[in-house]
């Protein structure tokens, strides 16, 4: 056990003023019931509302709570990464702030950890209060990801999971940018299992994952673990080339036989549009990889911390650090 702390709970916060107090209340009730030592690490990912003030107030009254403030919004995955790097616990649990992941499930995860599992991920048996679009696209995406990668990324899981200190240290040693944490957890291996839970409705407020952020995360997942899109675009190019040759030979023969062109202008234009579309798609796929290589080569940090707040009880008095 590291530094005497048994559990570290990592909670990313982005404009969560409507949920942060309730989230704290539910987490505290669950973690107190373990009768073991714990720290809750809130990561304020550049919130523009009252999240920071509310989280600071919580820190002032509870020495188990720590708060990391980013200098701006770096994104959910960067927030989780910071939490993991800062955490001290023998087991580390990542959970969303909006109570869609029920804190009570942490107790089931802990039970599995005590049985000897080093990764316990939350598997969504049912999803409540989410749009049909989100459920459908997410289910399709996880299946696509599974078909494209050689490592076992479990379907229907998010970042709600418990990892052992050893797994956390292994993840912290990976230097890559544009992190897809749930994929990296599968990649590092160790003894893994799942616990099922019903994904709840968001407690309050709106999702902080608009389509743009969801797409970025989806591409991070695929590009970090698979070359298949590049291979597929090469196959596609090869097939188009073959079709092009066959059609060219057919047209020449037809022209020779009856002196007419079999291709109307419309057909030629449509074929061109399809081919240009495919070329641009392939370039786009390459761009997704290239952009990420660019990010790696710049080697900028995944996030910048503006301040860290927590109260320590040294000399029997509470003191604000950071
Ligand atoms: N989040 C974050 N930074 C962001 C977006 C989201 O820290 O840029 C946090 C957010 O506060 C929440 C978690 O990530 O605790 C998951 O976000 P959300 O619940 O909005 O996503 P959804 O459940 O709708 O996919
Ligand atoms: Mg949510």
From TrEMBL:
Localisation: Membrane
Source species, domain of life: Bacteria
Location, primary (coarse class): membrane
GO MF annotation, one: transferase activity
Species assigned in the record: Clostridium omnivorum
Keywords, ordered alphabetically: Glycosyltransferase, Membrane, Transferase, Transmembrane, Transmembrane helix
Glycosyltransferase 2-like domain mapped to chain residues: 8-169
InterPro entries, per the entry: Glyco_trans_2-like, Glycosyltransferase_2, Nucleotide-diphossugar_trans
Residue spans crossing the bilayer: 230-253, 265-290
Membrane topology qualifier: Multi-pass membrane protein
Protein name: Glycosyl transferase family protein
């Amino acid at each position: 056990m590291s530094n005497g702390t048994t559990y570290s709970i990592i909670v990313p916060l982005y404009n969560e003023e409507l949920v942060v107090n309730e989230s704290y209340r539910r987490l505290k009730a669950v973690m107190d019931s373990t009768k073991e030592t714990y720290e809750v690490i809130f990561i304020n990912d550049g919130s523009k509302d009252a999240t920071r003030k509310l989280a600071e107030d919580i820190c002032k009254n509870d020495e188990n709570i720590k708060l990391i403030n980013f200098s701006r919004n770096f994104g959910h995955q960067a927030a989780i990464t910071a939490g993991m790097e800062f955490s001290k616990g023998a087991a580390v649990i990542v959970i969303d702030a909006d109570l869609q992941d029920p804190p009570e499930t942490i107790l089931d995860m802990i039970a599995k950890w005590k049985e000897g599992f080093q990764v316990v991920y939350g598997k969504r048996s049912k999803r409540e209060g989410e749009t049909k679009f989100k459920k459908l696209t997410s289910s399709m995406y996880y299946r696509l990801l599974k078909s494209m990668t050689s490592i076992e990324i479990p379907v229907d899981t998010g970042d709600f999971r418990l990892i052992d200190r050893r797994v956390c240290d292994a993840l912290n040693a990976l230097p890559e940018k544009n992190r897809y944490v749930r994929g990296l957890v599968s990649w590092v291996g160790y003894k893994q299992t799942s616990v099922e839970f019903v994904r709840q409705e968001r407690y309050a407020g709106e999702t902080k994952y608009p389509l743009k952020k969801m797409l970025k995360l989806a591409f991070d997942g695929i590009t970090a673990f698979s070359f298949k899109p590049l291979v597929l675009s090469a196959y596609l190019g090869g097939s188009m080339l073959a079709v092009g040759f066959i059609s060219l030979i057919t047209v020449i023969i037809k022209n020779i036989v009856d002196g007419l062109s079999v291709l109307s202008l419309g057909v030629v234009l449509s074929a061109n549009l399809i081919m240009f579309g495919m070329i641009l798609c392939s370039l786009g796929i390459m761009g997704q990889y290239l952009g990420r290589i660019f990010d790696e080569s710049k080697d900028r940090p995944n996030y910048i911390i503006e301040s860290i707040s927590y109260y320590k009880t040294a000399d029997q008095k509470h003191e604000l650090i950071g």
